[in-house]
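lol so apparently i was supposed to do this last week
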Amino acid sequence: MPEITLRNITKRWGKFFGVDHLDLDIADNSFITLLGPSGCGKTTILRMIAGLETPTTGQIKIGDKVVFDSEAGINIPANKRKVGFLFQNYALWPNMTVYQNISFGLSNIKEELPKYDFDAMTTGELIRALKSGKKIKELVEECRDKRGKLDTDKVYLKFIDAFILSIYTAKILYGYGIQDAADPDAAAKAKAEELIKKLDGIKKSYESKGQSLNEEYAIVSGGKVLTEDRKLTKEEIDKSVRRVSRIVKIGMFMNRYPAELSGGQQQRVAIARTLAPEPAVLFMDEPLSNLDAKLRLEMRYELQRLHVETGSTFVYVTHDQMEAMTLATKICLINNGVLQQYDAPLDVYNRPANLFVADFVGNPSINFVEAKGKEQADGSFSFRILDDLEATFRPNEPIDMAAWFAKRDKDAADLEAQRIEMLKDKKAVEKSNKDEVFKYHIAKVDESDYAVEEEPEITNEDFVLAIRPEALKLSGDGAIASTIYGAMPTGMESTVKLRIGKYLLTGVIFGGVTFKLGEETGVDIAGTDILLFDRKSGKAITAGSLAVKG
Ligand SMILES: Nc1ncnc2c1ncn2[C@@H]1O[C@H](COP(=O)(O)OP(=O)(O)OP(=O)(O)O)[C@@H](O)[C@H]1O
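anyway here it is w/ adenosine-5'-triphosphate bound
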């Protein structure tokens, strides 16, 4: 399975940049979620990789193959990129059965494929199935109803699943009547010997022509598998349909029409249809958003399993951060067409690159607390927070703030110089949807206060601390005095709003605790995952611990 690389990809419509200079490496066999608020460019990125949208500039590679290059004028169409799609509106064909829905696309494929000896292949599969006559008999017996009547359709399905066969081969196997023999094992052995002789004969006939059959029964000549431009055979199509149906567990619904299936079952058919041509990369755009909450959760597990079983690379668009966190091997977080962070879910959660990421990921949201102060000689930071509390922030690793600020300012100056340089080119287009530092929200008891406040002048002594709700620990002797402003118990945990002066902080308390509104309690801020951000640029500086003097 291939790696996907995007280099300097930009998509703009006039002066509006949907995607802005994106570099991305999607590793082989990964499960990437593209996450971000509505309109940030997720779908556009997905569509550009898939070949449904043409980038304005840049290069995209799938494996070794350049599928798009604006400078070289390469743009390989979607149907030649060996990719599969699954969209929100997966529309199955209502007048086709489940089987027809899945197989329809396969019957249209015509490409260079190995030349197989299908007779030898079927013979080999039957020999494998005939290893145990007893097992064949057992499978058949499982398909009798209370009165002993046999359901042969069910028998075929059992054979298909147990021996990985097509329906055609399953019917031949049943036709041997092994299940009715007095000694099924002996009958199966005798039949297998007959077939082994037949297979040997086929192999010999190839050898006499200087050719051979490989393990998959493809014809090999001069050390190379022979290929031909052809359509898939009925047998191959059936095997593909059965394979994917097994993965998404819809084998028993093959003859039903979509209207006779539940929403979740229909969705699984849509997934099977997408998987059938064995796409190397699977693109999914909010594929679960039409399902109810319970089903959505169930399907998430299915997708996780599917990813492991197919070994394909999954690229998944969602605006649901929970979905992105739980499914992805890596999250690609976008805002205003610009990549904000590309990391494993827990890294994004614990070490967000900037205020936007910290705010976007996590439910309940992270608490932002403005902090004024500076670094001390011992490497800690002395801050004033929540209007009148003194706090000491101790970074997990020592940090040279003078160097940090110098780099921040140099990066900003370089970017501005680049912009001025670029505008010298008359054809250059300036981004109309400008990038701004994220406006974080400080929760206050009286929100109207917030609206009228003037923007203060930001200096290098202005920071923002970000505290995850689970870092707040309540205890009688906690350093910060607070009152319980609100509490939402769910049994397993409670989300509490704590009032500290005119500010509100959100905490998550595990266990079934009952809180009384208005009750006074002490709070401590625990752990080493308290995050420090630069207020001017919104960028993360470091993580550490916070001690507050009451
Ligand atoms: N054909 C077009 N012409 C102009 N602007 C477009 C066009 N297609 C998309 N856009 C704009 O590009 C931006 C990115 O769109 P995109 O569909 O990628 O967003 P998204 O992140 O997938 O959003 P959502 O979660 O709402 O689906 C949006 O602001 C959209 O309005």
